[in-house]
């Protein structure tokens, strides 16, 4: 379960609302779900069957604009919001892992198009 330190960490980057399909693949599971927000560090995957914290997975998703290209990134489940009557938004927070510089720059560019972020020096390296 998430700790207060996890809460601070998962909020360290601004999130932007999206509605994108995502394939979440592990050695044992294939989950087709929806990304409901994204940041430079990870995504929130809305699903009534979140994977356990610590699960490593491959994420395949595409932004709405096909010109921005598809992503295939590694990540791990950082925290979960289990499905229950008092939870209107079940799912899992997934933190990206082992991003290449190219993937990181592309990801920042996609987020910039969503948020209309002004370009800045070393923005992709923050």
Mind explaining what this structure looks like?
This protein is of the alpha+beta class and 126 residues long. It has one domain (4-117): predicted glycosyltransferase like domains (Thrombin, subunit H), CATH 2.40.10. It has 2 helices and 6 strands; from the N terminus they run H-E-E-E-E-E-E-H. Strands 1-2-3-6-5-4 form a 6-stranded antiparallel β-barrel. Strand 2 (30-38) and strand 3 form a beta hairpin. It starts with a helix and ends in an 11-residue tail after the last helix.
What topology does this entry show?
Layout: H1 4-10, E1 16-25, E2 30-38, E3 42-46, E4 56-61, E5 71-81, E6 91-97, H2 101-115
Antiparallel strand pairs: 1-2, 1-4, 2-3, 3-6, 4-5, 5-6
Shape: globular
Give me the side-by-side strand order of the main sheet. Answer: 1-2-3-6-5-4
Q: Can you tell me the CATH architecture?
A: Beta Barrel
Instruction: Determine the number of helices (DSSP H or I, runs of at least 4 residues).
Output: 2
Q: How many domains is the backbone divided into?
A: 1
Number of strands: 6
Structural class: alpha+beta
- Give the percentage of residues in beta strands: 35-45%
Poorly predicted regions are 1-10, 117-126
Overall average pLDDT: 83
Text of the CATH class: Mainly Beta
Order of helices and strands: HEEEEEEH
Radius of gyration: 14 Å
Span between N and C termini?
Answer: 28 Å
């Amino acid at each position: 379960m998430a700790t207060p330190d996890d809460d601070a960490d998962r909020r360290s980057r601004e999130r932007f609302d999206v509605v994108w399909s995502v394939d979440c693949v592990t050695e044992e599971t294939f989950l087709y779900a929806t990304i409901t927000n994204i940041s430079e560090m990870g995504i929130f995957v809305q699903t009534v069957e979140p994977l356990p914290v610590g699960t490593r997975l491959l994420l395949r998703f595409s932004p709405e604009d096909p010109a921005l290209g598809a992503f295939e990134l590694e990540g791990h489940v950082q925290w979960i919001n289990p499905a229950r009557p008092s939870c209107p938004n079940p799912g899992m927070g997934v933190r990206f892992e082992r991003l290449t510089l190219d993937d990181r720059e592309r990801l920042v560019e996609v987020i910039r198009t969503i948020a209309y972020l002004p370009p800045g020096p070393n923005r992709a390296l923050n």
